[in-house]
Amino acid sequence: MLKVGILGGGQLGRMLLQAAKPYEVQTHVLENDPECPAAPLCDYFTLGDIRNFDDVYAFGKSLDCITIEIEQVNIEALEKLAGEGVVVIPEPRVLRLIKNKIAQKAYYQEHQIPTADFVITQTQNDLLQHIPFLPAVHKIGEGGYDGKGVQVIKDATELSKGFDAPAVLERMVPIKKELAVMVAINQKKETAVYPLVEMCFDPTLNLLDYQLCPAQVDPSIATHATQIALQVVQEFRSPGLFAVEMFLDQQDQLLVNETAPRVHNSGHHSIEAIDSSQFDMLWRILLSLPLGSTRMRNPSVMINLVGSGVTGTAHYHGMAQVASTEGLTVHLYEKKISKPGRKMGHMTLLGSDMQHLQEQARELKKSVSVSGSSER
Ligand code: ADP
Asked: N or C: which end of the chain has fewer CB within 10 A?
């Protein structure tokens, strides 16, 4: 039986493990929180730091294959493991490229992949040379996630908001829609592409608010987005599952924002809405099995359940009220502590009419919530 390790034990690792059931595989997780969402579901849990060379190397050296559920991992250890014959998916070279926003933008530019214009800055002071480039978005090269590490700089009075570290200053895109395409590529270089999805963000938390599949765009835009995503992924020359995030601007131009080299929040609907979910598909890639079908079963809307109120023991509200909603599946991540903005679960609603699905999503958002309380 193949031994497969996952670096990181959050909700993505948890849902990946939930999808392992049909396969003959022994699962291992490395994570420094023994109460993490993936811990109860893996065969073997190792306590350790995914950013630490020794921890990752010791974890990986007896495995056949290793993958990630978060980018902030020790890449040097993965390189050493790959050199010793452990199959690392995606390849460490691609993780290194994607982990750094400067390298990632340079990659798009080099491969003529449409992306917002940008300049590179090393210090906050460098921004002074780029005042004509404003308004722009400053993105720290390494270490940012979920909007942390991203600052809008409207004009010269806001330069102090910029990062005093290597970063990308990207032209502000007049965004009409945010879209994503999930692409699977296996060890034989075969590909499978998921239907285009549309993401609607919560402007205050900068977190995905809800996601629609299929995206409500002209079919020619969907075709073009798919072509761009395939190009991005094929040029990586690495097996893996990738989420290519794009902006559609007011002129209907598509621009690649960034690529996630792993299962992704924009693909959660695939558990119910697509024949082979993003998690099932990743197992097929890891275990060298034929790719699954990306046929859409039903249009869907996916809503994130994020913590509100204060940090504390998680309490769920309104669950019973929505329990009998036709087409609804609720996923909770078993996180004991709720924090404002923390992803605690998600809901996927299947339907047929997109307009109606969006109205229902708004109602569901009002009915269901998660909050923290200080009582134990
Ligand atoms: P993160 O990797 O932290 O999620 P992103 O690069 O995806 O950061 O940026 C977070 C959000 O900021 C995007 O989803 C988008 O709404 C907004 N954003 C990012 N880049 C631009 C840009 N060039 N123009 C306008 N908005 C942007």
From this structure: C
Q: How far is the CA of 150 from the centre of ligand 1 (A)?
A: 7
* Residue 352, pLDDT score: 94
Task: Pick the more confident residue, 341 or 110.
Answer: 110
Please work out, in degrees rounded to the nearest 5, the angle formed at the alpha carbon of residue 116 by the alpha carbons of 114 and 122: 125
Return phi, psi of residue 185, to 5°. -140, 125
What Å distances lie between residue 215 and 180, 265, 299, 368, CA to CA?
Answer: 9, 15, 9, 24
Paired tokens of 198? 């549309």
The amino acid sitting at 170 is E
| Contact between 23 and 47 (Cβ < 8 Å) | no
> pLDDT tier at 144 (50, 70, 90 boundaries)?
confident
Where is pLDDT greater, at 231 or 374? 231
Report the alpha-carbon distance of residue 238 to residue 184 in Å, rounded: 10
Give the torsion sign (CA, 77, 82, 84, 85). positive
Query: What value does the mean pLDDT of the chain take?
Result: 95
Spatial CB neighbours of 227, under 8 Å, sequence gap ≥ 6: none
Model confidence at 376: pLDDT above 80: no
The DSSP symbol for 102 reads H
Phi-psi region of 211 (alpha: psi -120 to 50; beta: other; left: phi over 0): beta
pLDDT at 7 over 60: yes
CB 37 within 8 A of CB 20: no
Tell me the domains of the chain and their CATH numbers.
2-88 (3.40.50.20), 117-171 (3.30.1490.20), 175-373 (3.30.470.20)
Question: How far is ligand 1, taken at its centre, from the CA of residue 183, in Å?
Answer: 20
Q: Are 201 and 341 in contact (CB under 8 A)?
A: no
Q: Of 108, 168, 257, which is best to mutate to test ligand 1, by the most ligand atoms within 8 angstroms of its C-beta? A: 257
- Ligand 1 pocket residue status of 152, Cβ below 6 Å: no
